[in-house]
Amino acid sequence: MNEEFQDHQIRDVIKINYKYTMGGQSKFFKELMNNKRLLGTKCKKCGKTWMPPRINCSDCYEPADWVELKQTGTIEVSTIVWYTTSAFIKAIPYGVGFIKLDGAETSLFQGIFSENLVPSKIKKGKRVKAVFNKLREGKMTDFFFVPEDEYDNWISKPEYEGGV
Ligand SMILES: [Zn+2]
Question: Fewer beta carbons below 10 Å: N end or C end of the chain?
Fold first, then answer.
């Protein structure tokens, strides 16, 4: 660009309608949406149970079977979110963390909500349970985890419900 030329710029917004596929992971999202079930996969060869599910075992590359997992688990690591994208701005502050569901050998990154969100409520080793939105869309945001001792309070709210 030379000194005589100065381009004229206008800020605008582009809105795009699009769809994307969950591919081989579709069963996880359909079961989440329709039946409030959390499905992982179990390797046919080594028996490792994956959550999030892997269609093929990432350790030995063999196909894996779908298995239903419990909706309780343990926090492995967590943090509190104060800065986020526009999609989640109304929810801050909220917790996120890696949760190992009972029966799984890998951990799922997911939201952890608490009525009294302080680090000690969502720290490593705390037991959590899944709470589901009543209106589900087949997305990861259809559910989140809460401390086990808050579960009954969360599922009594009109917009949420317990799992199966
Ligand atoms: Zn395997």
Answer: N
